[in-house]
Amino acid sequence: MLSRRAFVSTSLSAAAAPSASARDRPLNFVFILIDDYGWRDTGFNGSRYYETPNIDALARSGMTFTDGYAAAPVCSPTRAALMTGKWPARLHLTAHLQGHASTPTHAKLRAPVTRKELPLSEVTIAEILKRKGYATASIGKWHLGDPGFLPVDQGFDVNFAGTWDGSPKSFFYPEWEGKPAGVHGRPGEYLTDLLTDRACSWLKQQRTNPFFLYLPHYAVHVPIEAKKEITARFSRKPPAGGQNSAEYAAMIYSVDESVGRVMRTLGQMGVAGNTVVFFTADNGGVSSREWRQRQVTFNSPLRLGKGHLYEGGIRVPALVRWPGVTKPGSACHEPVYTCDYYATMAEMAGAPLDAGHRPDGMSIVPGLRGGPLRERSLYWHYPHYSPQLGRPASAMRHGPWKLIEHLETNQAELYHLGRDIGERNGLAAHEPERFESMRAELHAWRKEVKAQMPEPNPDFDPAREPKPPVEPVA
Known about the structure:
Helices cover 26% and strands 15% of the residues. The chain is of the alpha/beta class.
């Protein structure tokens, strides 16, 4: 009998190359988005504690991106960028929905009031593909609006479990009853398994039309809850590299099982060779004590985590498997981020973009084919205070250089990520011309997209303002 790891590798290898008949059919798309999943939370990015054999096998069968980024350090803005290809700052959707107007009472700045939903005027990637005859389904977390702004209002034929909620009440039924709303299960059923059941069931129904499955898991967001038997196994495993939460490891293991089940379903349907699979996360891992005063994960060598514009908050696992195109086991070291997937899928599908809806991201198809990507700047704008003690900031990256501007103090930092991925050695004083040039570019970009800025808080009290984050140690 094959081991789980060997079975995964064998089944993916068998489906790696598309058949001649498959090449004549339109491409299918499966987009798997994991919530709060840190850059170093996968085996292919170096974790020695978490176990991700299916995700690692997917990575070996496609192309990984060492410098993959989320469009924001929190969830809703990144999801909006994925759906539209636009910068969250341009959309005025820069905070998670529940935090759209939040400001700690005595903080120095008052955050702007941002959108509470993805506007219906935006043309989503689901709408673009639907016009080309694609069947479309969103199964999992939506977090982009109330009824009237749900997936079925934004180009998806099917919505299961997608609501305004950003997290479930529990990952076990019936404890999750009511959140996410309208989702029912069997007693003791695990939400990650239920979403996978629905995703695989929907896939099996797609026998004639090309399809786009959007599978945004609620995991591995809080609450940190996992199956007891898997948690018990990880509790016996020695910590490694600062990662030591058995329950979080078990949540990741269930997500990995989900990836394996989806890939096996594609193989059983005979469409794996004609289906492009994307895998990434909405922001970096939670490095703070957000869950019951316990550290969730450990992002080192990246600095900090979710809710911050340092690398730990925005650099995420990213891979694309495009059978017959991406070289198995290849890696791209050029930066890509969430906004790029819109134009990429549209180009792959041969779907024209609306003249009045131009994405800010670019197609990464040339890179997937093994060529270079066009050099450009990447931008982030987060004018908010995050629950993880992140503070209002903007950032940009060009080549290996990254600049972060802190909006409370108007001070900025410059780093060379190629030599200092941990952002410990500021180089502004050593590179004054580069520093000023990048800062001017960041300001010009904010002006171009009409980025909302925080304002002075009349209730500011230095003695009672939020404390700075404490960086976790291994």
